[in-house]
Amino acid sequence: MFTKILIANRGEIACRVAATARKMGIRTVAVYSDADANAAHVAACDESVYIGGSEPRQSYLRADVILEAAKKTGAQAIHPGYGFLSENEAFAQACADNGITFIGPPASSIAAMGSKSAAKALMEKAGVPLVPGYHGENQDPDFLQQEANRIGYPVLIKASAGGGGKGMRIVQSEAEFKDALSSCKREAISSFGDDRVLVERYLSKPRHIEIQVFADSQGNTVYLFERDCSVQRRHQKVIEEAPAPGMTEERRQQMGEAAVAAAKAVGYVGAGTVEFIAEPDGRFYFMEMNTRLQVEHPVTEMITGYDLVEWQLRVAAGEPLPVTQAALQIKGHAIESRIYAENPEKGFLPSIGQLHYLHLPEHVKFEINEGTRVDGGVRQGDTISPFYDPMIAKLIVWGKDREQAIARMKQALADTQVVGVNTNIAFLGRLFSNNAFTSADLDTGLIEKNTEQLLPKAQAASVTSIAHLVAALLSKRGQITPSSHQQQHSTDPWDLNDTWRVASVFNETIHLRDGETDCIVQLARSGKEWTLTLDGQSHAFTWRVTQDDGRFATQVCLAGVNSSMSVIVQGEDAYLFDQGKVTHLQLPDDLHHSADEQAHGGGLVAPMPGKIISLAVNTGDTVKAGQTLLVMEAMKMEHTITSPSDGKIEEIFYAVGDQVSDGAELIKLSE
Predict the structure, then answer these.
(1) Judging by DSSP bridges, how do beta strands 27-33 and 47-52 pair with one another?
(2) Cα–Cα dist 627/342, whole Å
(3) Is 310 exposed, middle or buried (0-12, 13-18, 19+ CB in 10 A)?
(4) Helices (H), 266-307
(5) How far apart are the first and last CA of the chain?
(6) Any residues with CB less than 8 A from the CB of 104 and at least 6 apart, and which?
């Protein structure tokens, strides 16, 4: 067994690999970029080596620098994690050429499966069913357009070397094809260094089911059952579960054996995932093979009881698989949710910023258990940067059946609280209450089909939420209950910053802002009785507050009804957490904002930090509402900025290649 390995990755997966290595007594080496100098994965490892700038091309994609770091530190093997160089055949071969073990399949296997086009040709030869499409080498745009027309719309354009939803576009008509192809190729070259694509028929109600396979160097190959990854947005997985709901033993065996055959066809060694797309009638088609560990591997670990990273390390060291196919069994049901820093209400745009507050449910870290597990790579105080995937953590739960797993996931989400960036936590909570999901009516279009329920219009803050914020504000001043205040240094009542008054009468007006709406709260005390008045309605009001780690745990009785919430106050912003729902209220400082003005009327601003990669208009152009103005790249994904209304381009403030900050004015648009 190895005594030291280098982890050529960052974030959650680097921490995950380090955790298993530590349990096995293997020392670890981290690599890090400028943005990751103080990252969690650096602290999780025994040694660390700086490898370059913040952009992946300057650091985590630099194979030569990573190999040099392994040599310098005496690492005998390199674990690539997922993403970055994990499916790069040249890197795997370079490791072999330098006498360093690549913890993954041989370079030849990566080459065979790394190109989606080549892999599909291989599977077609082996008799594995394929979705109708074009998987060849001819990349001429006119030819690809002809192939799309032949296949019939809608079609899916997919980066041949891609993964993770990057470099993929659904095209509904011939008129949309060329623009979608150009965008797809740009994203593919940026993310994978390869702009080749394939085109195939887009199935209208498909399920995404993948099979976990594992092979050793002695010729043994097994499948560790399936995962259902159908719940996706923008072609990226949001929820994964194992086993797949409704899967029969016969179909499981058919898909498992097909996956094993695919692995054996390319001389596979290590962990891999064979992905299939399945139709409602049960027919399934080979989609691709990911020659690495998957983000969603924990759900397989939870239902089988095996640590897949430990298997990777043992197989890479030449050991045989620890069990045979006959010994593998499914126990219970597991679900994983990806907690992202993103804004679902704004098209799931990434959200950049510091994690001022991060509270997670009771859990184990990176371990197999029959409860709640969290795999994460960031801590409170860390920054979600524009350079990498915006995942905060993965919540994984186990239940004796799917119903119990869903219930546990809903509670885990309700106990997860983040301040500093927008997140998808409330969105996920609604997903787990969605009828289509709970009834297992799954397909990759579930989110789009249920947008109205999953992305409801913003509602005004309830009087109960406002009462909880008032309770937190009173607690900040020392009034933790209606009748008592916190102990303070002075014994002089005139020094107490609470509601004590000589005449036992107290009145106060509190100004809040709920989105664009101003809220005026009247708080009054007469003797021992408290009243909270909002919108002309008065309510009897009592409260009790405790404080821990910057969080106010508020208990409020409003008009005889008791409730509890968690409240975080950051400057002028307050966040109220109630069973997974977050309410954002502001505490405006009118004096501070009295001089605030918009720098430019009619300006169009950047929704996140990123790079301008394409401009579609020029100064003086007349544009229509919804027309593309420019394309930005952030976190390896393209984001199209469109005109909010008809108008004329007065001024363009940035050029292609410029980096822009969140909120920067991009274009001045006049009506």
Answers:
(1) parallel
(2) 24
(3) middle
(4) 297-304
(5) 69
(6) 80, 86, 92, 110, 270, 271, 291, 292, 312, 316
CB atoms within 10 A of CB 624: 10
CA 296 and chain centroid, separation: 12
Locate 122 and state its tokens. Answer: 């291989």
Q: How far apart are CA 630 and CA 658, in angstroms?
A: 12
Instruction: Tell me if the bond preceding 350 is cis, omega within 30° of 0.
Output: no
Taking the model in full, what pTM does it have?
Answer: 0.82
Return the DSSP state at 462.
Answer: P
Sheet holding 77-79, edge to edge: 47-52, 27-33, 4-7, 77-79, 101-102
* Length reported for the chain: 671
pLDDT along the chain (671 residues), means of 10: 98 98 98 97 98 95 98 98 95 97 96 81 80 88 95 91 80 94 90 89 89 97 98 90 96 94 93 93 88 97 98 98 97 97 89 93 93 96 92 97 98 96 95 96 94 92 96 91 63 51 72 93 91 94 92 95 96 93 85 39 71 91 89 78 88 89 85 74
Kind of pairing between the strands at 637-642 and 168-171: unpaired
Q: How far apart are CA 157 and CA 197, in angstroms?
A: 7
Active site residues: 292
Rounded CA-CA distance 112/128 in Å is 15
Sorted by sequence, the CB contacts under 8 Å of residue 218 that are 6+ apart come out as 320
